[in-house]
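User: Before I run my own analysis I want an independent prediction to cross-check against. Here's the chain; please return only the structure tokens and, at the end, one sentence I can use as a sanity check.
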Amino acid sequence: MELYIGGLNQGKLDYVLTKYKITKDSDQLCDGAVCTKEELFKKRFINHYHEFVKRLLTEGEEPEEFTEELIKYNPSAVIICNEVGAGVVPMDRKDRRFREAVGHCTLKIASNAVHVERISCGLGLLLKGESEI
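Assistant: Structure tokens:
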């Protein structure tokens, strides 16, 4: 499992696509904003995992439990997720719960991942794993 995290519009998807030499229309890529749970278990590349977490919360499900299943059933997944925990803490309880859930999920993923990078301005900062240079 690999995790690529970073702020909004920091080039995470393009970074991963370039690294793995795949395109946005690859059948190996799914989008957490619209994909099914089954797709997450089958696809190698998962973009917008934070959006999937938001969908689970909206449906009354526990994202942390689902993330544990994802780790178990798709251990070779490459997950791309926005960092949502920086900045001012939201006043709205639902927004705080979303922020906390994404944090807990990315913590679980990172602790099980062999490779973790933070992407900023399209550049990767290795947080865990070995450099490919």
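Sanity check: The chain has a mean pLDDT of 95.
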